[in-house]
Amino acid sequence: MKNKQEKIQAPTVITAHANADFDALGAMVAASKLYPGAVLIFPGSQESSLRNFFIESTTYLFNFKAFKDIEPESVKLLVVVDTRQRSRIPHVRSVLDNEGLRIHLYDHHPDSEEDLPAEKSVVREWGSTTTIITHEIMARGLTLNTEEATLLGIGIYEDTGSFGFNTTTPRDFEAAGWLKSQGMDIEVITDLLSHELSAEQVTYLGELFKNAKTYDIHGVDVVITEMSTDKFVPDFALLVHKLMDMEKIKVVFALGRMADRIHLVARSKNPDVNVGRICSSLGGGGHDAAASATVKDRTLAEVRDDLFALFYSQINPQIVVESLMSRPPVVIEGDKTMADALELMSRYGLKDVPVVERDSMRCIGIIGQQIADKAVSHHLDGVGLSEYMTRTFETVEAKTDLYRVMEIILSNRQRMLPVVENGDLVGVITRTDLMNMLIEEPARIPDSLMPDHRRERNIAAQVKNRLPQRMLDLLKEAGELGAEIGWEVYAVGGFVRDILLGRPNLDLDLVVEGDGITFAKRFAAKLGGRVKAHSKFKTAVVILDDGQRVDVATARLEYYEYPAALPTVELSSIKMDLYRRDFTVNALALRINPGRYGQLVDFFGAERDIRNRTIRVLHSLSFVEDPTRILRAIRFERRFDFQIGGQTMRLIKNALGLKLFSKLSGTRVMHELQSIMNEGDPLACLLRMQELGIMEAIHPLLSLDRERIQILTELVKVHNWYKLLYLDPAVVPWKLYILGMTAGIKRDEIGQVTGRLHFTQKEERDFLHLRDMIGEALMKLMGWKEGHSRLSRLYKILHPIPVEGILFLMARSRKEYIRRNISQYLARLQYVDIEVNGKDLKNIGIEPGPIYTTILDRLMTAKIDGRAETRHDQLNLAKKLNKELSASLESENGD
């Protein structure tokens, strides 16, 4: 046995799901072409043909190792193919705890709740995962040998049923065609995938024939069959294929009890039956046409009953949808007002109503009672529905299956679902309609769509991998204190968002379903620290002895008395606390109490929006209530390289049309601008603001013309350069970029901008003085000539100016030699000092007086220009200057 010192270092590891098939094996080998030098870990397979093929050839051709032979802690990058589910890679579970582990995923299966978070995720709904990676290889211009091309081809042929499954796509044909050009041997593939049955397998196939029964599920023939044995049956999937072929079966679910487990293999040639979705509800996986699952601790009868419950909810239940919907629907025309909508919903007791085009039944939106009520309270009762109705929504046809209805209403949280025929609205299904039906038939709800199941999954492993130990200790202490008091405690907001994004964020925000201030005081007493409480907002800041700050809030709901007002606070639950936040990506909570530690609470689809890289508000009046959220939307969009969603962008433009920025105080606008200017790329944010008309909305004088954009572009460059030097003094970003934003504004007009941004008197005075100094320095720099003017002259021009002004001069200058010498000033000259002081001047006999300032100033000039670099030189020069200055003074007095 190898000891720890002999284990292989494996910085990059490639693996696939347990019980691997040929697609998994082919995808692993394909991935090794994208990650040269990677170690391949075979996860094991129960299919005898695959095991034999692997043992006889693959291990000798490729860099496969046993997991026990590698050092798990050496793995820095884990590449997982043909699955994204944590539970399906138990053979590398210990690697998932590695600190800083990067994960790349390649898969063709549907999303699941336990999908691994990944730095890179390539997911395509193609016939096989091998196809996906083959296209990556093609795009990179790589080549394969015959053995590689054939192995990849086996994976594609198997998972597409030799291109006979409905899940086969043109991409699969393209990949196979390219593999043929690389030497793929089709005869080898045909021989490998065409199996001769053993006598024992023929016996098992006969049992499947005997037990096969056909059921009519909403007009679809579904075959269920089963067999039972005390040992594992290899190639069970092959027996199911034989059964389908011989009996011309379109849909089959085969159950095999093998020892203490039930193995399910499902195949479908009917587009109305998605076997992958059904198997995923039983803990398995697959795609539309082929899937499987393994169930422990259940009997055959119990699993069969579960299948029937899933059938009736997921297989083409047309009659259920038609009987469930309400018709004719109550509608409102799009040219009506918010007040009209509120009155209509109050009259009929509705929470939502579809919006249709005038004189037609074409549905163009949905308006909710909550939004209409808020709009009226904000005195927007006369505003048209088109401004705030939800334009992005799902619809279904009368024949749509019930699973899709449940997916939209329960999983996607769309409370009302319009039913359309030929583009016209014919009915609606509400959440209440659906729930009333499900109360009568609860077995229809697949576990995967249960609301609580969707909202919470455990990310404790990600938390552990992505946070330093000190932060993990704080979460543990806070959770234990919450349990001790009897209150639920959550980490919330950007802290949780950045865990999912894999970004560093040590700004810990806690929310307590209890008294946040009381919790903060006990937390500080427990860990050592002090508390700053804000009773009005029921929040506190804990400042620990090591300087760590922890913000603590009481779970609350915020409502706004009028547009752009500060919030009024009421106690509420965690859901309501999250609902008050700006964007879905920030509306996340992480349970930290013992027993539920690491559970992610996501009511509003934050994980989905993070995956889709989308910034989306939680409700239509978000920007009306707080227009500064527009600036935050832009800041997050540029920081994360996301995209503001279409509905959210429309609401931004609506808020600008209502001129809501004029209602904001300058202090709040300035605070958001300062946050933007602290971003890594503030210019990207400012350009986006200019594009949307926000700069002009803040103040017309701040509109960015071409010259200002050029100056700001240079400012970003010089600022980044300066930060890399780690020099003192540090730059105050907002002071630097406000200089660029106000470049060209006349002095008698600048007060309009500083007034709008609510500068304090000191800030305004300092800013105007800085602009004046910059103007004077620009004139002097125009006369400074390299090779003719002394460096000491440059020093005297720049030395009185704060660093923000100097960087502005560097960005503003058109002459490269001036920029170069300003950089020399910042990097060296500003730190030059002479070795002589006033005490030294007194010791050499110079009488104290104003002459000291003159002499010391000239000594500095001489040192910078290289004429008195040592203390000895400076003392001699001081004596000489004293004589010259004294003689000059006597001459003046004599005259």
TrEMBL record:
GO biological process: tRNA processing
Gene3D superfamilies associated with the record: 3.10.310.30, Beta Polymerase, domain 2, CBS-domain, cca-adding enzyme, domain 2, inorganic pyrophosphatase (n-terminal core)
Cofactor(s) recorded in Swiss-Prot or TrEMBL: Mg(2+)
InterPro entries: CBS_dom, CBS_dom_sf, DDH_dom, DHH_sf, DHHA1_dom, NT_sf, PolA_pol_head_dom, PolyA_RNA-bd
UniProt keyword terms in alphabetical order: CBS domain, Magnesium, Metal-binding, Nucleotide-binding, Nucleotidyltransferase, RNA-binding, Transferase, tRNA processing, tRNA-binding
Chain ranges of the CBS domain: 325-382, 389-448
One Pfam family it belongs to: DHHA1
GO terms, molecular function: metal ion binding; nucleotide binding; nucleotidyltransferase activity; tRNA binding
SMART domains: CBS (SM00116)
PROSITE patterns the record matches: CBS (PS51371)
Annotated family: Belongs to the tRNA nucleotidyltransferase/poly(A) polymerase family.
PANTHER family, A to Z: A-ADDING TRNA NUCLEOTIDYLTRANSFERASE, POLYA POLYMERASE
Protein's recorded name: Multifunctional CCA protein
